[in-house]
Amino acid sequence: MARQLKFNIFRFNPQNPESIPHMESYILEETDSMTLFIALNRIREEQDGSLQFDFCCRAGICGSCAMVINGRPGLACHTKTKDLPLEITLTPLPVFKLVGDLSVDTGTWFRSMYNKVESWIHTDKVFDANAIEDPMENDIAEDVYELDRCIECGCCVAACGTARLRDDFMGAAALNRLGRFVVDPRDKRTDKQYFDVIGSDEGIFGCMGLLACEDVCPKNLPLMNQLSYLRRKMGIVAIKQMFKK
Amino acid sequence: MQTIYKDVLIIGAGLAGERAAAEAAGAGLSAVCLSIVPARRSHSAAAMGGMQAALANSIMGEGDSTDVHFSDTVKGSDWGCDQEVARLFADTAPVEMRRLCDWGVPWNRVVPGKSKYFKGGKQFDKEEKEEKRGLITARNFGGTAKWRTCYVSDGTGHSVLYTMDNRCAQLGVEVHDKVEAIALIQDGETCYGAIARSLRTGELVAYIAKATMVASGGFGKIYKASTNAVICDGGVHGAVLDTGVVPLGNMEAVQFHPTGIVPTDILVTEGCRGDGGTLLDVNEERFMHIYEPEKAELASRDVVARWMTHHMREGKGVPSPYGEHLWLDIRHLGEKHITGKLREVYEICTSFLGVDPIHQLIPVRPTQHYSMGGVRTNKDGAAYGLKGLFSAGESACWDMHGFNRLGGNSLAETVVAGGIVGHKIVEFLENYECSIPTAVISRTAAKQQQRIDDIISGANGKENVYRVREAMQDALDKGAHVFRTEEGLTKCVETLQETLQRARKVGLQTDGYGASPELSAALKIEGQVKLALCVAYGALQRKESRGSHNREDYPARNDRDWLTRTLAYWKNPDDDLPTLEYEDATPSYEIPPGDRGYGKMQIISADSKEES
């Protein structure tokens, strides 16, 4: 017989003056290959049309549907209900501003992040439509892509002890983003320039090394390696600066 | 109501929209992109395979040129495309790939030396040249004469979109996310922007602009089984149709991708077949080479999808609780290739199916994938019928794809068309001033507010939006799929007409406060059903088979009578059918209609015109 699943879902609509934050329960019969994407849509379409949550690609590629699933941040689209117990508790990601129910505003957070780290290639080169491209070793291109794979779901930030303690901490996603430019030979920024962006407690030195970011990353990005690599590199810049004084 | 003024308003922040925004911002104009989701979640991000451009760097691309790319595109379109546009596209694509390279896309590069590749399950050797070391390489895709698809592992769309969004951030392009355009502001002659609804607060916002661009992607979600993202729902197409004066082009041209996985309809990239994957039937035997001896699995998508459906009808499908399917086999490519160049495929299979593609077969079947139809524009991207309105990317019928698009050509189109149309918008604005009739703004806003109030209060009825949507999707899935008949399409149109009446009576079951997802769905349902009718009615009227449009009762490609593009208008909001008009498929021919070299079928020649 199919399992009866109980979903405990955080509900709050800030636009409704009568709404107060609370948990609400819904019962669903489990079906074959059920994911949280299927379950939440069924709850919305059959039981409560006002339930807010975000899905987009529903294929683990876009990062829209991150939420806290039984206490752990993850992507709802590729979470299968058969891997969960009978009772499933869903709450919105912390750190990000709540839009309503399970929906949070990751867009604003990430846009301010990439303005902070200046998430673009810094170069004096002017594009010449008549020239062939500058060659690059394929291994380097693949190294850049390896870090470019972040989907900005926000799980790493939501799981981060430092980000939960201080609003100004950049989080693993930002440091990984900067790391992407550090390994990219097209970006002409110097280590000193990178240091000015992340060489502080808001950046690389705020990390407590709790490893949660890498544990929850749905794309299995090498976040801790990346963080320690940057920390070592930035540490050297810091020491050099000390001797200059 | 908040009112925001910009030079350029772009509805959509995927690749086409952001590429155009970058062009506008680069020329010193103020530009804003509206997006239902954060820009980087746009459906462009999900495109895995790559972008076609005739760079001819890899050994298997040797001898390629923009002429060959053009020719493949025209053949792919089954001579349904605008050849001037296809030419413009093929010529511009290499420049755009290099520009993306400068902006930061980590394209895969040529590695000199010997390596192995697979074709039709067999292994071959190739040797890349030293002098091409480090230049942008390419992989094989269906329907192309040369290896031409530039790629970043299998995250091409993701990587290019992130680079483009970085570029936009650098240039100061604003992206207003969680904002949904629900109506165009227009007076029947000129477009002045759009009324949008905040998906944070539910409030209406008027965006006023001298030029407005629709870059909202496809509308695949009017089908139930679609590879498209949840957001590809045709909401903006509904708003465009609602103007009454802007036609949608070739709406019956809907592409079904051969490899949507069963049961979740998620796409696995054509790169699987390009890299040497094969299709197998219930007996685990290859079959594509029987139907297409030359191209086999690498015929164009319309042809492969058709033969797959045919083969399943012959009793060779694999039965499953979700209906019949076939198998995709990539096991022979090996672990390194699958977890490297096809890593997303590996993740999709393991996460969503519980299938390990290194050792197991992947269940696939043809699934709605791409909308060749859309907002009809001229070659500058200017929409028919309204001054100041533009469109590019999948939302547009710029018409380089005709009746079937080639894999790798849509992602390339987003940036190529985004660049070209963006540039045309800049030119358009150089000598353009308009006076903004505030009455038109307030009238449009008031009408939208009234619609919202009526839906919330149930003034027109209490139909459940989700049930109405289901009825629409079922009708299309049944009647307007890979194979089409007079009987099936007639039934589909009738069902959709009934569904349209129901859509007009939708009322909320919940309170409609704030970002209410039920209200979002309700606001677009009437437009969606109208789109569905444009697809089904256009298909019913087109009595031939061309590209993805397969009429079993009219199996020949009929160049004599149907070398045309359908224009679907919704002239009166209360109509229950679109008004169809036709125009020539292309203003001029560089390549006269002929055989594609795959997908053998009867052709009624245009030359037989005089005889009939």
Please give a structural write-up.
The complex is a heterodimer of chains A (245) and B (612). By secondary structure, chain A is of the alpha+beta class. The model of chain A has no long low-confidence stretch (mean pLDDT 94). Helix content of chain A is 36%, strand content 15%. Chain A has helices at 36-46, 106-116, 138-148, 155-158, 161-165, 171-182, 191-198, 212-216, 223-244; strands at 4-11, 22-29, 66-69, 72-75, 87-91, 97-100, 103-105. In chain A, 46% of the residues are buried. In chain A, the strands form two sheets. A five-stranded mixed beta sheet of chain A has the order 2-1-5-3-4. Chain A contains nine helices and seven strands, in the order ββαβββββαααααααα. With 612 residues, chain B is α/β, with parallel strands linked by helices. Chain B contains 16 helices and 24 strands. Chain B has helices at residues 15-26, 66-76, 83-103, 156-171, 235-241, 271-274, 288-291, 301-316, 334-340, 343-353, 409-430, 438-457, 465-479, 486-503, 517-541, 559-562; strands at 2-11, 31-35, 51-52, 113-119, 122-128, 149-150, 174-177, 179-186, 191-198, 204-214, 248-249, 254-261, 278-280, 326-329, 362-371, 374-376, 389-391, 396-397, 483-484, 550-551, 557-558, 564-569, 579-584, 603-604. In chain B, the strands form seven sheets. In chain B, strands 1, 2, 7, 8, 9, 10 and 17 form a seven-stranded mixed beta sheet that branches. In chain B, β4 and β5 (122-128) form a beta hairpin. In chain B, α5 (235-241) packs across α15. The radius of gyration of chain B is 23 Å and the shape is globular. The N and C termini of chain B lie far apart (60 Å). The mean pLDDT of chain B is 95. Chains A and B meet through α2 and α3 of A and α3, α4 and α10 of B.
Give the strand tally of chain B. 24
Largest sheet of chain B, in brief, is: 7 strands, mixed
Mean pLDDT of chain B: 95
Instruction: Note poorly predicted spans of chain B.
Output: none
